[in-house]
UniProtKB/TrEMBL annotation:
Coiled coil: none annotated. GO terms for molecular function: DNA binding; DNA-binding transcription factor activity. Residues 1-57 form the HTH merR-type domain. Pfam families: MerR_1. This is MerR family transcriptional regulator. It comes from Limosilactobacillus fermentum 3872. SMART domains: HTH_MERR. Keywords: DNA-binding.
């Protein structure tokens, strides 16, 4: 937050903040609300130039409401996609954890390989799905079955 307060004015993000006679920044409750919005946008990966544009639009008043609303909706959609991608990645990593956990317990990775080869058995994903069913991890099973990979990418 301190970094933001220090750098924000230089990036055009805090044009609304007034100063005291001594030159210190003075923040109103409204300023703090907008700063929280700016920080949220920054955390969402919105480029600083777009955040500065959002701030400028806000200062322009009601005629920019639709534009600001759409900007937020667009970034919400981006965040939801990123969250979905991260959930899929996490689900696949859990599958790989299970793979190595069971191999460690067996003392060999061969339990997951076609005999006499280094190729993974064709039904390995089904075995993992059975494990998830057996341990009642149905939400994880649903996520795992819907992971987009090289077979079912958009």
């Amino acid at each position: 937050m301190v970094y933001f307060i220090d750098r924000g004015p230089k990036q055009g993000l805090l044009p609304f903040v007034s100063r005291t006679k001594n030159g210190r920044r003075s923040f109103t409750e409204n300023d703090l609300h907008l700063m929280r919005t700016i920080i949220c946008l920054k955390n969402a990966g919105v480029p600083v130039a777009e955040i500065a544009e959002f701030v400028a639009l806000r200062l322009d008043g009601d005629q920019t409401l639709t534009t600001r609303y759409q900007l937020l909706k667009d970034h919400e959609a981006n965040l939801k996609k990123q969250l979905n991608d991260l959930e899929e990645t996490l689900s696949y990593l859990k599958f790989k954890e299970w793979y190595y956990q069971t191999a460690v317990e067996a003392g060999t990775e061969e339990i997951h390989l076609v005999p006499g080869s280094q190729e993974v058995i064709p039904n390995l994903a089904n075995q993992y799905a059975d494990h998830l069913r057996d341990t009642n991890q149905l939400a994880e099973l649903d996520r795992f079955e819907n992971v987009r990979d090289y077979r079912n990418r958009d």
